[in-house]
Amino acid sequence: MLLSCSTQDFAPRHGDEGAVRLLGEAGFGALDFNLNHYKVRETPDPFWTVSYEDLKEYAVKMKKVAKEAGTSFGQLHSPYPTFYKDKAKYEEVRKVGERCIELCALLDSPYIVIHPNVPPECTEENYFELAMEPNLDYFSSFAPLLRKTGVKIAIENMFNWNYEQDRGLETVASKAENMAYIVDSLNERAGEKLFVACLDTGHGMISGGGDVPQMIRTLGARLELVHLHDNDGRHDKHFQPFKGVIDWDAVCVAFKEVGYSGNFSLELKPAAGATREYAEEAFASAKRLYELFLSK
After folding, report:
1. Is 289 buried (19+), middle (13-18) or exposed (0-12) by CB count in 10 A?
2. By C-alpha distance, which of 174, 181, 229, 182 is closest to 201?
3. What CATH homologous superfamily does 3-294 map to?
4. Contact, 23 vs 268, CB < 8 A?
5. Beta-bridge mates of residue 168
6. Which of 18, 134, 186, 223 is positioned for an S-S bond with 219, CB 3.0–4.6 A?
């Protein structure tokens, strides 16, 4: 188990290499390498159209930087959104997902997080029925490449948003029961374990029912990676742990109960900027959380 942090807001400011160096030097032994700054909206970033050999060269360079900084790639995060009604755009973005899996393998990372598809017509009343089969079909399409590369896809709990009422809405993968159903169904279709769960603690407060410890217990052995952050119980603030309303003592008890052995990976959005000082503060927060976990 390593302390980890997402490069999410650090890469746009410092570049990929700079983000890896900064977070590694802050003390994080692993990283959640977030690729969302390579956009897929409208015209995809040229990053997604380079040759496999160029991608391999990029991965070699990034692994060298990570090694020098004393860190590694514990997980990758593909860009989002993943759902488009236009068939050509949908397939274009699905191909980006395949490229992410290839890069994940090249960086020696065991996991890639890909957001579930949330069709815009899905409301609180019909989200599950409308979105389930498209999601199972979408994720199952990656199974051959997962077998080839040895990478696993992690399904993350997500939310939709009602801007008029300023509140989160459930999606197909908001609740732990739904996440468990998706992971189990995908692995059953694949005939082997290619899919796992990634619990986002902040999202759990917004649309997962608010009982993060119970979500952990429901996911059980399916839970192999996490996005740890805090909030006000209503908005997706991505605070450091202990800066919001989550009961981290109860969360750590639940982690111990299910035998969680994955990395403790923070996913933060620093309001004052992704600085070196913030990275060091974040590492102290992660260390405090890990020590709380060890005490249980």
Report:
1. buried
2. 229
3. Divalent-metal-dependent TIM barrel enzymes (3.20.20.150)
4. no
5. 161
6. 223
